[in-house]
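Cross-check.
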Amino acid sequence: MFLFAVALAVAPALIAVYAYAVYPSILWIVAQLRRRAAAGERTGAWPTVTITVPVYNAVASIRTTLTHLLDVDYPRELVQLLVLSDASDDGTDDVVREFAVRGIELLRSPARLGKTAAENAAVSAARGELIINVDATITVPSSSLKHLVRAFDDPTVGVASGCDVSIGAGDRVGTKAESGYTSYEMWLRDLETKVGSIVGASGCFYGIRRRIRAEALPPELSWDFASTLVAKQQGYRSVSVPNAVCFVPRAADVQVEFRRKTRTMARGLSTLFYYRALMNPFRYGGFALMLVSHKLLRWLPFLLAPVAILALVVLAPQSNVAALALAAVALGLLVGTGAITHRGSMGFKPVAGAGFMVAAAAAGFLAWRDALRGTRMVTWEPTPRPSTSPG
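Predicted model, tokenized:
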């Protein structure tokens, strides 16, 4: 019984160490042994692209987003700009209609059906060989689109993901932690690309061959994650493109990130369960192992954390080490919860760090709860982000 309790207590930490440290180390070693030839200079014509911008009540940011997209460095006659409005009612659609004279099209849903439903509907309206998804709150530098599209010169590539760069005034230390996590994630995707294929694309900026999107995705799932899985099923690999930069303003505070993480992780888990066959290493080899390591084992500690805390409670009377660990966890939870509820304390780095970790853990557990209950998160409330231009 004692050893079983110890195993339960340490399981989340050991799984997290593997997912965040051991797995990247394995990728790095494999990447050194498997170096891909550098891409040559483009000689053929650029393909046609459809840039889709899913929106719901994005009146505060949509004008800036569309202005930037009209300035991208790409042959204008090859670009279709399509805004997907999920029945916005704040004036977003009126702003988009102002851009009709500049060739921007509006595809409006008559009722709120969710982001994925809007992206499904976009396929029939898209004329481009490639569909490029752009979040309504981010900024895509002029040169990034060509860098992203160039990845498709390789006929084995079905999905190309941009490189998120988190920017902001940095008024909250907790949101700076989110920036550090974003940088880590981009580094990891670069390693996965060198090994063979990434297992999830950036929802802010990614491209996919239109024929891969032929079948509609259930509305409670996420196309940014599912895109790489569908591509794999069809024999394509997916890559991260470091030069295809997009600037993502950091959310205002940890509470906003908490809501975003809960929603995106729950939808991610639902997507993973839906495509669970891809976690079979006997059929999908290394991709299956990467999918399990990067996604399932990164999310599993959130589900096991409450059980680990209960195990520490059982062990504390028998072990000084367990008692100290339990005290540390309790202190972290107390400080972190206080940091979230009293936002003024987030300027102190240790307190802010605890707040970020507690928010992430709580969001992860709630995401598991929603996914296991089968909660269908169809509609979405876009994360409010400050209007921040890269400096």
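Confidence is low (pLDDT under 50) at residues 170-175. The two ends are 57 Å apart (CA to CA). Passed to J.P. for a second look.
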